[in-house]
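Quick log. Single chain, no ligands specified.
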Amino acid sequence: MNGHYKFVNTPLPYAFEAMEPYIDKKAMYLHHDKHLQTYIDNLNRTLSNHPELQNWTLEQLIINAPCLPKEIRSDIKNNGGGVFNHQFYFSNLANPAFPQPVGILAQAMENAFGSYPSFRNQFKEAALSVFGSGYAWLVVNAAGQLGILTTKNQDTPLEMGLVPVLNIDVWEHAYYLKHYNLRADYIDDWFHVVNWEQASQNYTHCFPGLF
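-> predicted structure:
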C-alpha cells in the first residue's frame, strides 16, 4: 500500500483462488475488493477534509487517533484500523505454506509457548474467544517477548505499543460463505495457509541489526 493519503487498495500478491480449498475464491474476492475497499474509501473521505493529516502514514494515524479532533477520531480509528488489519491479514497468507514456524521465530515461539502445538491450541482458543467481530494476534511487546492478543472490531495492537507478527480475521465475512457459523473450522483451515516465512520476517524486523 502507498504510504499515505490517498490510500489505494493494491492487488493481492496471489490470485483470489490461491488459498483454496482452505479459503474460497468468492470469500477472498469479497473480503479484499469489497470490505477492505470500503475501509479505504471511508478513510480517504475523512482525510480529504483534513489536509494537515494527509502526509501521515497509516500507522501514525492509528497510533495518534486519540489525539485527533473529536469529530474524526472514531472514523480514523475504525477505518484506519480496518485498512491496517486487513492488509496485514492478507500479507500473511500463502498456499502452499510451511506447516509450522520457520527460522528464528520457531525458536522464539517454542520459548514462549512450549511447542508449536501448544501455541496452535492457545491461538485457536483466543480466536474462538472473540465475542462478535475482531482478530487474534501474535505480537511482540516492548521487552521483545511474544504473546497472544485479541482485539475487537478494527482495534489494532499498534495502539497498545505492540508489534504484530501474525493475525487472523474472525469477522464473519472472512469465513461465513464457506464455514457458515463454524468459526473453529475456519481457524483450522487458516492454519494451512499461514505464511510462516513472512511471519518470521515480521518478527525479525522487531530486532534490527540482531538477525
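The two ends are 26 Å apart (CA to CA).
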